[in-house]
Amino acid sequence: xxxxxxxxxxxxxxxxxxxxxxxxxxxxxxxxxxxxxxxxxxxxxxxxxxxxxxxxxxxxxxxxxxxxxxxxxxxxxxxxxxxxxxxxxxxxxxxxxxxxxxxxxxxxxxxxxxxxxxxxxxxxxxxxxxxxxxxxxxxxxxxxxxxxxxxxxxxxxxxxxxxxxxxxxxxxxxxxxxxxxxxxxxxxxxxxxxxxxxxxxxxxxxxxxxxxxxxxxxxxxxxxxxxxxxxxxxxxxxxxxxxxxxxxxxxxxxxxxxxxxxxxxxxxxxxxxxxxxxxxxxxxxxxxxxxxx
Length: 293
Prior knowledge:
Blueprint: E1 7-14, E2 18-27, E3 32-37, H1 46-56, E4 60-70, E5 76-80, H2 82-99, H3 107-111, E6 117-121, H4 128-200, H5 204-217, H6 221-240, H7 245-265, H8 269-289
Parallel strand pairs: 3-4
Antiparallel strand pairs: 1-2, 2-4, 5-6
Helix pairs in contact: 1-4, 4-5, 4-6, 4-8, 6-7, 7-8
């Protein structure tokens, strides 16, 4: 089974110490790009959380955020910003002196200024019990994320198989059209060659060789055969499952290359219309592949 690179998962717990919530969001990306948002007091858990995510996800941009609301004051401290307080007191006294104002500088006047007092989270590492609880929540959030990615992966696989079937059908129509027009192209070139032979007195055998060469140059059998081979390989990759987005992307590029070559050899309006349909299905496939892990 394949997985989509996009999804969302969350988990939370509400205990005696407080509430802890974890959210995991995954988006498309060529490689694994992991971003963690943790409270300062829990940053010591970052290496373990990174290992957890890397063991579960191979590709995509993953944002993991952890929030805590503690019922006690553990992990926080109130700090006086001495430079700010000194600056505020000095400025207030300067205003008093400059404008001859009565009164004193009071505590209430100082602490109302932003930055005078700061609530900061202290560094530290949670005890073993809380550590296990937090990492367990991270696992639960990743499980929730994985369920969504698998569900979207099922839809992606269905769309990809439909696109591959449409590409195969377009290739079959092109092959039939090419066979039907091959004799017509050859007869037209033979008639032109005979006219040139009579007009210029050229050697007949040489002209027929050129006719054969031109007909072969416009033949698309090899390109269509390679295209069908790529379709079969893509089906095998989907059947094997797992992280296969890069392999599918490579095959989609090869399909686009073959479709462009067939288009450059198309010599009739009917074949050109079929090539347009083929390119549309290949482009649809390429867009869907960008979502596969």
